[in-house]
Amino acid sequence: MDLAIIGGGPAGLSAAIRAKECGLDKVYVIERAATLGGILNQCIHHGFGVHVFKEELTGPEYAQRLIDRAVELGVNFVFGAMVINITEDRTITYASADGLVSVTPKAIVLAMGCRERSRGAIGIPGGRGVGVYAAGTAQALVNMKGFSLGQKVVILGSGDIGLIMARRMTLEGAKVLGVYEIAPHSGGLKRNIAQCLNDYDIPLFLSHTVTRTVGLKRLEGIYVAEVDNNYQPIFDTEKLIECDTLLLSVGLIPENELASKIGVKLSSVTGGAVVNNRLETSIPGVFAAGNALHVHDLVDYVTQESYDAAESAVKYIRGEFTERSNEISVTTGAGVRYTVPMSLVWDGPKHMYTLSFRSSGVYTPVEIIVSADGNVVKTVKKRVIVPSEMERVRFVLKEPVKEVKVALKW
After folding, report:
1. Are strands 114-116 and 132-134 parallel, antiparallel or unpaired?
2. What pLDDT was estimated at residue 123?
3. CA triplet 376, 330, 10: central angle to 5 degrees?
4. What is the pLDDT of residue 88?
5. What is the pLDDT of residues 106-133, one digit of tens each?
6. Over 80: is that where the pLDDT of 323 sits?
């Protein structure tokens, strides 16, 4: 086995496609489910593929494009296989219908995606009756199973899945009473605010949160309150909203248990692996891409990043990498929450580096400033930058440096 890719969603499929296109022979995708496509299968709305396929597709359509290409190229798939352990020498052990199986590929791409933050993670007090769902779970129940969840809906969190489910529940005949967001800005794409809330007259309440739920066997209502600058509820503003359904869109977390098992260094900000510009983790020969690395706003970017990870994995297998000693550290300055990658390997004065980052607030107008050892190497002017939308900046380094910093100026 040359390359093992863990996860058969958009990241894993994209990595497998590019690895085969680069001429790699034995490429395997290990998937715990019985089907490919991952989260895309339940995303029946349009908005995918504009960058990669130059047309607007639904989630299942996007997934099928990747599946068809992977099959055409001869990618190998292992279904119903739950990876339970990885060792530092890259030995993968997975449980399947054939029992426990161990394989040792020449390289690994971690592409397990992400999971939703649950009610327990954010500590909403109250009863545990029917009616409280993570937004992604609700999407699967409605779109995949045809369930009707409720008639009077409140959504906590304005991430993209919450905004999309506000529209979806409205189309199902429910009344969405409002979307409540603890931050002073939305966590979703501007287009989703327009198409999913504004077009359906669904109100968005910023700097608000749910303080408790009411109802034992079935949700009967929730209390909401404004929050202060430290995101703490102002209880004098608390009010009761009668509803039978609460959807939680309160953040996504990269699936990092396997990365932890192998000893990969994790970022305290993203929750995913710390990688260099080759998307290689702290363990040589182990790469990461997609939402297992950091949460993306567009699946097109997941595909593009996974292409890069696969190309790096192929170069590693073929021994084409230069030494990764003395990597250039990437640090964040004013207004930048995190960057990916977190370090750079010097690849010559003509190599184009790309940094993805998210801002820590809403800034307008603003400049992106990239400096190398204190000297500015790239500036980009933007009308507005928001935390919900990932930014990218590309630049070259004419000579090796010790540090690259990304900062905003407004």
Report:
1. unpaired
2. 86
3. 115
4. 87
5. 999 999 999 998 888 888 999 888 999 9
6. no
129-173 residue pLDDT tens: 899 999 999 999 999 999 999 999 999 999 999 999 999 999 999
Gap between the Cα atoms of 224 and 206, Å rounded? 12
DSSP-derived letter for residue 387 is: T
Q: How far apart are CA 243 and CA 240, in angstroms?
A: 9
Domains, the chain, in order of start with CATH, read 1-116+251-321 (3.50.50.60), 118-250 (3.50.50.60), 327-410 (2.60.40)
Query: What region, left, alpha or beta, does residue 307 occupy, with left being phi > 0 and alpha being psi -120 to 50 degrees?
Result: alpha
What is the pTM (predicted TM-score) of this model? 0.92
Task: Count Cβ atoms below 10 Å from residue 341 Cβ, excluding itself.
Answer: 22
Does residue 46 contact residue 56 with C-beta atoms inside 8 Å? yes
Give DSSP secondary structure letters for 300-326.
HHHHHHHHHHHHHHHHHHTT-PPP--S
Which residues share a beta bridge with 325? Answer: none
Helix (H) / strand (E) element for 382: namely: strand 375-382
Give 350's Cβ-side CA count (13 Å radius). 0
What tokens appear for 132 in the block? 């409280």
Query: Residues with Cβ < 8 Å from 189, sequence gap 6 or more?
Result: 160, 163, 297, 388, 389
Between residues 349 and 302, which one has the greater pLDDT?
A: 302
CA gyration radius for the chain? 22
Mean pLDDT of 372-380: 96
Mean residue pLDDT across the chain: 95
CA atoms within 13 A on the CB side of 318: 12
Residues in Cβ contact with 119 at an 8 Å cutoff, skipping those fewer than 6 apart: 132, 134, 248
Handedness of CA 187, 188, 189, 192 (dihedral sign): negative
Judged against a pLDDT cut of 80, whether residue 324 lies above it is answered with: no
Flag whether pLDDT at 309 surpasses 90. yes
d(CA 400, CA 404): 10
C-alpha span between 308 and 304 (Å, rounded): 7
* Closest C-alpha to 281, from 302, 303, 266: 266
Residue 370 is classified by DSSP as E
Query: In the structure encoding, which two tokens stand for residue 189, read together?
Result: 């794409």
